[in-house]
Design goal:
The complex is a heterodimer. Chain A is mostly helical. In chain A, 73% of the residues lie in helices and 0% in strands. Chain B has a single domain, classed as MetI-like fold. The radius of gyration of chain B is 24 Å and the shape is globular. Chain B starts with 13 loop residues before the first helix and ends with a helix. Classes of the chains: A mainly alpha, B mainly alpha.
C-alpha cells in the first residue's frame, strides 16, 4: 500500500464505521421485530395448530376468535382493567405529586416508599397481593380478628369482582412511577407564573385547574402512553394473582394468546389474537412516536 | 411566603397541610403494607399464619422458611429450592445487561454525532420495538431459538433480552448524547481522532449518569421478566418462573411462609439495586430522557 492510498482508505473506513456499528442492531431489529411480526401475521391467516404450517385459511381465525366467549371475556376485561388502571394511576400519581410538591417535610423518605414497587416483578406483586386478598388468611380474616365479625372481602374468589383485584395490585405497582413523572413536570414549572397569578387573586384551586394542570400536558401524555401499553401487555400479574380465574373470569388478551398458542394448540387463533394486540398498541404508539421524533428533528 | 425554594409557590393553610400529611402517610402505608406482610410472615411458623393474624409479629421467630425457599422447597418436580434458579437469573442478567448497554451507547453515539440520511427512521423503527406486545414474537422466536439450538438455555434467554432491550438503551443514550455539544466531536475529528477514539476519550467519560439509568432499567426489566423465561426458559428457568411454580404448586400443604420468603428472595436483587442507586436512576431519567 502506498502512502497516498492509505489515508484514503482510512478516511473511507471512518465514513463507513458509524453505519457499520449501527448495522447489527438495525439488522437484528428488522429481523427479530419486524420479520417476526410479519411471520406471526402470516401465521394468523393459516391453519396452524400445534406447529406452524402454511395452509392459507383467509380470515377464518379472526372469525373464530371473535366468536369465542373466552376472547370476548378477555376484551371486556382489558377494557375494564385498562380504563380503571390508567385513570386511577394517573389520579393517584397526580395527587401524590401535587401534595409532595407542597414543601413536605420527609419528602426524601416518602418518595422512595411510593416508588419502590416499581422495582419488583409482577410475579412478586401478584404473590403478595394474592395472599393479602385471600379471605382465608388475608385482609378478611384480619379484620374479623380485629372484631368486625361480619366483614367480608372475597373479590379474588368472585368471578365478577376478581378483575378489580388485578386493578388494585397493578395500581399499587405503577402509581408511584406516575407520581415521579408528574413531580418532574411540576418541578419544571416556573414559580414566577404561579406568583403572578396569585397576585391577580387566583385561589389555589384555580391555580392548579387553570395553570398547573394545563402545563403538565406532556406528563399526562407520557403517562397515558406508558400506562396503556403496560395494560395491554399485562400478563405476569394475571398469572401470579388469579391465574386467569376464578374459572376464566380474569382472562386477558395476553393470557388468552398464550393458552391458545401453547397449551390448546390453536396457533392460528393465538397468532390472530397477538396481531390484534399489536394493532391496538400501534394505534396508540405510532402517532405518539411520530410526533415526538418529528419535533426533535 | 418569602422563602424561595424549588417547590411550588402555592401556600396552604394549617388544616389543609394536616390533611395533606395524613393522606401522604396513608398512601405510604398502602405501599408498605404488602412488603410488611411478606416480611413478617416469612419468619413465622406455618401454624401462626393459618391460625393467627397476618398483621401480627411472629410469636416464634424462625428462619426455616428462608432455608426451605432457598435450598429445599419443591419447585416443579425437584426439591431444589430457588437457589439454582437464582443462579440462572444471575447468569442471564449480567451479560444481557452489559451487552445491551454497550450496544445502546454505541448506537446513541452514532445516531447523534454521526447522523446520516434516514437516521430518524432507523431510530424510530428501533424505538417502536420497545413497545410491541411480546406475544407477537413468541411463536417465531420459539422456532428460531430451536433452529439455533438455543432453546431452553441461558444463552438463548440472553439473546432474547439483548434483542428486545437495545431499543430502550439506544433511546436513553441517544437522548443523553443529543445534549452533548457536537462541536467538541467535530473539533476532535479535525485533530485527527477516529470514530472509536472520540467515543472512548470524549463521550464515554461523561456517560456515567445515563449508564446508571440504562443498567438499572435493563437489570430490573430482565430480572423481573416472566413471559420470556416461561416461554423459552426450558431447563434454565429464571427466578420469576421458579417462584411462580413454587407458589402455584397444587400438591401438599400450602407453605405460605416459604412462599413469602421466596417472593422476597426474588425481589431482593432489584430492591437492593433500587435502594443503592434509585436516586441516580430518577435523576438520570429526568436529565436524559424525559425532556427529550
Amino acid at each position: 500500500m502506498t502512502a497516498s492510498t492509505a489515508p484514503d482508505f482510512r478516511t473511507r473506513l471512518q465514513d463507513w464505521l458509524p453505519k457499520l456499528v449501527l448495522a447489527p442492531s438495525f439488522a437484528v431489529t428488522i429481523l427479530f421485530v419486524y420479520g417476526f411480526i410479519a411471520f406471526t401475521a402470516v401465521l394468523s391467516f393459516t391453519g396452524s395448530k400445534m406447529l406452524p404450517n402454511f395452509k392459507w385459511v383467509g380470515w377464518e381465525n379472526y372469525e373464530k376468535l371473535w366468536a369465542l366467549p373466552a376472547w370476548n371475556t378477555a376484551i371486556v376485561n382489558i377494557a375494564i382493567f385498562a380504563t380503571l388502571y390508567i385513570v386511577i394511576c394517573t389520579a393517584v400519581g397526580l395527587l401524590l405529586a401535587v401534595f409532595l410538591d407542597q414543601k413536605i417535610r420527609g419528602e426524601g423518605v416518602l418518595r422512595p416508599i411510593y416508588l419502590y414497587p416499581m422495582a419488583l416483578s409482577f410475579i412478586v406483586t401478584g404473590t403478595a397481593w394474592k395472599w393479602f386478598l385471600d379471605p382465608g388468611i388475608g385482609l378478611e380474616k384480619v379484620v374479623r380478628l380485629w372484631g368486625w365479625e361480619s366483614f367480608s372481602f372475597t373479590w379474588i374468589k368472585d368471578g365478577d369482582m376478581a378483575i378489580y383485584t388485578i386493578v388494585i395490585a397493578a395500581v399499587w405497582q405503577t402509581s408511584g412511577f406516575v407520581m415521579a413523572m408528574f413531580l418532574a413536570g411540576l418541578r419544571g414549572i416556573d414559580n414566577e407564573i404561579l406568583k403572578a397569578a396569585q397576585i391577580d387573586g387566583a385561589s389555589n384551586w384555580q391555580l392548579y385547574r387553570r395553570i398547573v394542570i394545563p402545563l403538565l400536558r406532556p406528563a399526562f401524555l407520557s403517562a397515558f402512553v406508558i400506562l396503556s401499553h403496560l395494560a395491554i401487555k399485562s400478563y405476569d400479574l394475571v398469572v401470579a394473582l388469579t391465574g386467569g380465574g376464578p374459572g376464566r373470569a380474569t382472562e386477558m388478551p395476553a393470557t388468552f394468546m398464550y393458552s391458545y398458542t401453547f397449551t390448546r394448540n390453536q396457533m392460528g387463533i393465538g397468532a390472530s389474537s397477538a396481531v390484534i394486540m399489536l394493532m391496538t398498541i400501534a394505534a396508540i404508539m405510532v402517532p405518539y412516536l411520530y410526533a415526538e421524533l418529528k419535533e426533535k428533528k | 411566603m418569602a422563602a424561595v425554594t424549588q417547590d411550588t409557590a402555592v401556600s396552604t393553610g394549617r388544616v389543609t397541610r394536616a390533611f395533606i400529611y395524613l393522606l401522604l402517610l396513608l398512601f405510604a402505608l398502602f405501599y408498605l403494607l404488602p412488603l410488611y406482610v411478606m416480611g413478617v410472615n416469612s419468619v413465622k411458623p406455618l401454624e401462626e399464619i393459618t391460625g393467627g393474624n397476618m398483621m401480627a409479629l411472629p410469636q416464634v421467630w424462625t428462619l426455616d422458611p428462608w432455608r426451605s425457599a432457598w435450598s429445599t422447597a419443591q419447585i416443579g418436580v425437584e426439591p431444589t429450592g430457588l437457589k439454582p434458579y437464582f443462579l440462572n437469573s444471575i447468569l442471564m442478567v449480567v451479560p444481557a445487561v452489559a451487552i445491551s448497554t454497550i450496544v445502546g451507547a454505541l448506537n446513541g453515539y452514532v445516531l447523534t454525532k454521526w447522523r446520516f440520511r434516514g437516521d430518524t427512521w432507523v431510530f424510530g423503527l428501533m424505538l417502536f420495538s420497545c413497545f410491541i406486545p411480546f406475544q407477537i414474537v413468541l411463536i417465531p422466536m420459539a422456532v428460531v431459538l430451536g433452529k439455533l439450538g438455543l432453546a431452553g438455555s441461558v444463552p438463548g434467554l440472553i439473546l432474547v433480552h439483548v434483542v428486545y432491550g437495545i431499543g430502550f438503551t439506544t433511546l436513553y443514550f441517544r437522548n443523553y448524547y443529543a445534549a452533548f455539544p457536537t462541536e467538541l466531536v467535530r473539533a476532535a475529528q479535525i485533530d485527527g481522532a477516529g470514530f472509536f477514539q472520540i467515543f472512548w476519550r470524549i463521550l464515554l467519560p461523561v456517560s456515567g449518569p445515563i449508564a446508571v439509568v440504562s443498567v438499572i432499567w435493563q437489570f430490573t426489566n430482565i430480572w423481573n421478566d416472566f413471559l420470556f423465561g416461561a416461554s423459552f426458559g426450558g431447563t434454565s428457568q429464571p427466578m420469576t418462573v421458579a417462584l411462580n411454580n413454587l407458589v402455584q404448586s397444587s400438591t401438599g400443604v400450602k407453605e405460605y411462609n416459604v412462599h413469602f420468603a421466596g417472593a422476597i428472595l426474588a425481589a431482593l436483587p432489584t430492591l437492593v439495586v433500587y435502594i443503592v442507586a434509585g436516586r441516580y436512576f430518577v435523576r438520570g431519567l429526568m436529565a436524559g430522557s424525559v425532556k427529550g
